[in-house]
Write a structure and sequence with these properties.
By secondary structure, the protein is mostly helical. It is 85% helix and 0% strand. It is found in: Cell membrane; Membrane. This is Probable membrane transporter protein.
Length: 114
């Protein structure tokens, strides 16, 4: 049931704020579902693919998807995802967790002072 709740929360935040699901899903999977950092990352990526597909279909139905912008962001993001996956395989789970926590803290500070 925790995983269903995590999915629901991630979907709401993704739709409301356009945030990457990983920012929401990974901490919830680690903190509330007890997954290790690497497992949480992999599960998050799978969930994001499903969420993104649903979102893009709904936005496209209303004519809100600009394929040029999507490609300009999506293609480099895909390359970054491949690079990030390669780097993550070489890191310990603890290093991944610390790096993610630092990223979230930096984003939080930036949002508060912006």
């Amino acid at each position: 049931m925790r995983l269903v709740f995590i999915g629901l929360v991630a979907g709401v935040f993704s739709s409301l704020f356009g945030v990457g699901g990983g920012i929401v899903i990974v901490p919830l999977l680690i903190g509330f579902a007890g997954l290790a950092a690497k497992e949480a990352t992999a599960a998050s990526l799978g969930a994001i693919a499903i969420t993104a597909l649903a979102g893009v279909v709904l936005y496209a139905a209303h004519g809100k998807v600009d394929l040029a912008y999507a490609a300009l962001v999506g293609v480099p993001a895909m390359a970054g995802a491949l690079a990030g996956s390669a780097v993550q395989r070489r890191l310990s789970g603890r290093a991944v967790t610390i790096g993610f926590a630092l990223l979230l803290a930096a984003i939080g500070v930036r949002l508060l002072v912006a």
